[in-house]
Amino acid sequence: METSTTSSAKDEYVLTTGDQAGGTWLVGTIFLPPAAVIRCFGKGGCADKCKVSREYVFCKGDLIFTLYDWKSTDLYDPALMTPEQFWSMKLPMELHIGSNASSAPADIQHFAEWITSKMSNVKK
């Protein structure tokens, strides 16, 4: 995965490598169009190739957030769509938000608002 050169302004999250994702767990869900996520943040990183087909890792200071599909593709259940089909969806799909112990509920809400704002700037 490419590391973003996004501004490290106070309210910005920086796309980083999957190495930072260790020690994160589910803290919430969000509905976003997977195809727009790719247009906004690139291809993302490889995940476990079983329950998760793709993930994005963002950091801001000590905070780490992950955005990923969870048990959404045929990697987990053959009756589901392929990862390629899932990530080409233009309709909002459920994605999981993971974080670490440093995140408070207000941090999680801020990240969800930030990513939603970023997505609103992506051409449909």
Provide a short characterization of the protein structure.
The protein is α+β, with helices and mostly antiparallel strands and 124 residues long. The protein has helices at 34-41, 83-87, 105-120; strands at residues 14-16, 25-32, 45-46, 54-60, 63-68, 93-99. A hairpin with a 7-residue loop joins strand 3 (45-46) and strand 4 (54-60).
Structural account:
- With 124 residues, this protein is an alpha+beta fold.
- It is globular, with a radius of gyration of 14 Å.
- Helices cover 23% and strands 27% of the residues.
- Strands 1, 2, 3, 4, 5 and 6 form a six-stranded antiparallel β-sheet that branches.
- It has three helices and six strands; from the N terminus they run E-E-H-E-E-E-H-E-H.
- The protein has one domain.
- 28% of the residues are buried.
Output the helix-strand order.
Answer: EEHEEEHEH
N-to-C span: 23 Å
Percentage beta strand: 25-35%
- Apparent shape: globular
Label the structural class.
Answer: alpha+beta
Radius of gyration: 14 Å
How does the major sheet shape up? 6 strands, antiparallel
Task: Classify the helix fraction into a percent range.
Answer: 10-25%
Oligomer: single chain
Beta-strand segment tally: 6
Mean pLDDT: 88
Number of helices: 3
Number of domains: 1
Low-confidence stretches: 1-8
